[in-house]
Amino acid sequence: MGKKKLLVVEDDKGLQKQLRWSFDGYEVIVAEDRESALAQLHRHRPAVVTLDLGLPPDPDGATEGLATLRQILAEAPGTKVIVLSGNQERAHALKAIGMGAYDFHQKPFDADTLGLVVARAFYLHAMQEENQRMLQIGADSPLSRIVTRDPAMLRLCRSVEKLAPSSATVMLLGDSGSGKELFARGLHDLSARHEKRFVAINCAAIPADLLESELFGHEKGAFTGAGQQTLGKIEMAQGGTFFLDEIGDMAMALQAKLLRFVQERVIERIGGRSEIAIDARIVCATHQDLPQLVREGRFREDLYYRLSEVVLAIPPLRERVGDAVLLAHHFKHQASLMERRSVPAFTEDAVLAIEQYGWPGNVRELENCIRRAVIMSEGPQISARDLGLAGAPQSDAPVNLRQVRDAAEYKVMVTALARTNGSIVKAAELLGVSRPTLYDLMHHHGIRISP
Ligand SMILES: Nc1ncnc2c1ncn2[C@@H]1O[C@H](COP(=O)(O)OP(=O)(O)OP(=O)(O)O)[C@@H](O)[C@H]1O
């Protein structure tokens, strides 16, 4: 990754040099007046700008500096502008803050303090960009309802995007509440069938003797109580997507009838005499181990193979990196919006408890837990106790970014050195860093190669 870009708008050559020198950790871009500042802004899109208010043609006033500020913020509102002003210019500096500058700093500047202000501005900018990106993801994709940052889940989302336009029958495997229906809907929403219906049926929720009629429909008088012709769910999905949830719970007798539909794409209503052709994409799901059910003779092997042209396995929430807390924030916002109340914050122990808890009921359990806490919470904060998770084991795992990075850096370096049998040249190549950088890192981590 390249260095972060810092734009220094300063007409004094001496100060330009000093600032460049102070900020050698950044890629410093210099501009000496409004015009060049805006040109550099267009070209480099820096996250942070230091701006001298006294720019030519008004080096003793602030009109040109303030005009530059206004234009920078109009063009790139997220830019963090730090105003540098002389002692006498406090009023101007405050005016700049009122206009949207991030901070001000008095000249002559103190490199350490200004360094901190600049570093913090970069940090804040990155956070805000990330938030923006998250909102964006949420806004414009049919998979937007799937909130995740976990690499395995993101790969699944890509697979869904690729599979959606095809007619392949998809089997979704995953624990209860892990989002199987959400993925099934994603497949539908991204397909050419999205204007037709998505019809779901949960085989485990309907008594076995009613399931057949629910699936295939019936003609009037087909059985006692069949007062009128009723369409089955399969027929309702004509042109669209038919989602069979908890397929592993279906009785063997019904499996045979379902197989006929899956193979021949025709159904007969109960009591009916004619075949009805159905064009529906089939997606099914289960939390059960279907191959095991096949081995036990409880699930038809032929049906299993027909239904599992493509299998997608959804990881349980506890295996997703960082998702529990991400989803908790998401559901907290959603619930607050629904309940028309201000969004409470999670206390530190709440965040830790959310991370630590195993979530056997997966996302559904998390969603219910957060919704309940938002409704019941009285103050501006939600604690682990409010979540009903107080007493969850505390984590020793480091959450400090530097600690985590250090640990990862150490591990990968030792691995590279082991793999290359201690060859610094080869290890540096493998790691994609220069030799001096590797030496620095080894020194930092106290790694020595024995001669
Ligand atoms: N990644 C996710 N992002 C946002 N919401 C999610 C996510 N995964 C699941 N949910 C929400 O969690 C709840 C449960 O999801 P869903 O019904 O898709 O799970 P399921 O695996 O089909 O459950 P079951 O096996 O019990 O039918 C739903 O309200 C769904 O919107």
From TrEMBL:
<feature type="domain" description="Response regulatory">
    <location>
        <begin position="5"/>
        <end position="122"/>
    </location>
</feature>
<keyword id="KW-0238">DNA-binding</keyword>
<feature type="domain" description="Sigma-54 factor interaction">
    <location>
        <begin position="146"/>
        <end position="375"/>
    </location>
</feature>
<dbReference type="Pfam" id="PF25601">
    <property type="entry name" value="AAA_lid_14"/>
</dbReference>
<protein>
    <submittedName>
        <fullName>PEP-CTERM-box response regulator transcription factor</fullName>
    </submittedName>
</protein>
<dbReference type="InterPro" id="IPR003593">
    <property type="entry name" value="AAA+_ATPase"/>
</dbReference>
<dbReference type="InterPro" id="IPR002078">
    <property type="entry name" value="Sigma_54_int"/>
</dbReference>
<dbReference type="Pfam" id="PF00158">
    <property type="entry name" value="Sigma54_activat"/>
</dbReference>
<dbReference type="InterPro" id="IPR001789">
    <property type="entry name" value="Sig_transdc_resp-reg_receiver"/>
</dbReference>
<dbReference type="Pfam" id="PF00072">
    <property type="entry name" value="Response_reg"/>
</dbReference>
<dbReference type="InterPro" id="IPR027417">
    <property type="entry name" value="P-loop_NTPase"/>
</dbReference>
<keyword id="KW-0804">Transcription</keyword>
<keyword id="KW-0597">Phosphoprotein</keyword>
<dbReference type="InterPro" id="IPR025662">
    <property type="entry name" value="Sigma_54_int_dom_ATP-bd_1"/>
</dbReference>
<dbReference type="InterPro" id="IPR025943">
    <property type="entry name" value="Sigma_54_int_dom_ATP-bd_2"/>
</dbReference>
<keyword id="KW-0547">Nucleotide-binding</keyword>
<dbReference type="InterPro" id="IPR009057">
    <property type="entry name" value="Homeodomain-like_sf"/>
</dbReference>
<dbReference type="InterPro" id="IPR002197">
    <property type="entry name" value="HTH_Fis"/>
</dbReference>
<dbReference type="InterPro" id="IPR011006">
    <property type="entry name" value="CheY-like_superfamily"/>
</dbReference>
<dbReference type="InterPro" id="IPR058031">
    <property type="entry name" value="AAA_lid_NorR"/>
</dbReference>
<feature type="modified residue" description="4-aspartylphosphate">
    <location>
        <position position="52"/>
    </location>
</feature>
<dbReference type="Pfam" id="PF02954">
    <property type="entry name" value="HTH_8"/>
</dbReference>
<keyword id="KW-0805">Transcription regulation</keyword>
<keyword id="KW-0067">ATP-binding</keyword>
<dbReference type="InterPro" id="IPR025944">
    <property type="entry name" value="Sigma_54_int_dom_CS"/>
</dbReference>
<dbReference type="InterPro" id="IPR014264">
    <property type="entry name" value="PEP-CTERM_resp_reg"/>
</dbReference>
